[in-house]
Amino acid sequence: MDRMMLEKWLAPPVGRVDAVLDTDAYNEIDDQFAIAYFLKHSDRINPRGLFAAPFLNERSVSPEDGMEKSYNEILKLLALCGREEMIPSVYRGSKAFLPDEQTPDLSPAAERLIKLSRDYSAENPLYVVAIGAITNIASAMLIDPTLADRIVLVWLGGHGRVWPDTREFNLWQDVAAARVVMKSGVPFVQLPCMGVVSAFTTTAPELRYHLLGKNPLADYLAQNVLDCYPGNHRPWSRVIWDVTAVAWLVDPHRYFLWDTCPRLLPDYDGRYGTEEGEPMTYVYHVHRDRLMEDLFGKLLEG
Fold this sequence. Notes:
The chain is of the alpha/beta class. The chain is built from twelve helices and ten strands. Helices cover 37% and strands 21% of the residues.
């Protein structure tokens, strides 16, 4: 992609866009909010697919197990959102993280992304929103490097540049994959976690007031968070930051502040490198209340 086209797609999207969502849906309680928001904003997003991403933590015994659980969680959210017609558009992703920056992990999700992207071009790209380890996308790029000329990649990953390290869950699970996509030349929008979208939190009283008891989808999302509440009437909040990546497709001018800056590749030592790459869009502030109002409103729609 030439420099002028790259800079064009680093700007916020205009109008309704075609998009896929790549998610480690079972890893936490925020992917579920993001999936619902992705499906509910049909005025701004035409969903072309959902991909299950691998993860490994206390909720899985292996990256493959995490991916499989995420696949099933996506199907659950489709049912809750009344979008069962999209089941054929859900694809299993990588069973393992990348072993290095040259070796892809072939998966149905990577194959589907490559095939789907051929309907698009540098003049009319497909938006790819990633809210987990970026293994599926990196694998697709290693298989077909021209993919970078047909998509815009929006990733919630890494921490803010002012943060002392880059050991954020999505990035740190697969540093090789993060480096692959950032070196690819793809139009790249980063929503960093700590220091930026970590401001997008909700609380138990807020969920009980706005969502609980309103409909089965709202109940499921709210209860997932409330089950994490420590009790004892302590002050407490929970990040649901994955929503913010989807919100970049909805109304960036209302929900964010951002800048264009050179890419800094994450190193394997847990820091950003100093060598500057192609320009990227770097989100540095989220207008929490505006976005939360829109999120809750969409979740309550029939």
